[in-house]
Amino acid sequence: MDEHFLFYVPPEQIKQDRLQFTEDEAHHIARVLRKQPGDLVQVTDGVGNTMDVKLIVVDKKKVAGEVVATYITPAEPDRIMALGVIRQRERLEFAIEKAVELGVTKIVLVHSEHAGRMELKPKRIDKTIIAAIKQSRRPWLPAWEERDSFYEVLAEYRDSREVVMAHPDVEGTYEWKADDSPLLLMVGPEGGFSPKEVEQAVASGVKIVSLGQKRLRTETAVCVMLALANYR
Q: What is this structure's pTM?
């Protein structure tokens, strides 16, 4: 079995230890890797299960298999990334990809004051997230949602978890808690959060953290923020 590749099959396509691969995954298995019936591949359902699957059908129209072993991974630490929308689509997708690889359990894409409005492409975002869990071999598929304002996100999450905002104009350092308590990590768009948003965050008890003396691009700040959270 080639363990370099992890495939994703939604839970609804797994019934009584039999599963059918999506069109994209079937193409990769049949046309790219040229797998044959009887070969073993590894699959995740995105809800904590990794499965060894024996291929039963491999043809141009369909790839299906049978689950022969299942490995259960406990739920991951609860980390939500609230990310100000980046107007350059490729950079936004890069930020999402890295957030998933570094362990977020949910991504909230926020049209904050400096972000403005941009039409998101749900299918592209879904595809980016799925590709990232396959790359990082994560058995949990992060959810994502879109919110119209920073204030909406803050109102929903501030009472249920510690909220930490990245902001360049702050003195001193923030002492991360050395545990896996639920976190909401906030990274602004290009130009960062507005003074009004920062003021509201401070008034709401949000912890403000500097990511260093250099002014970082949003996607770089996502990586640094999650690195700090992962190794606190």
A: 0.92
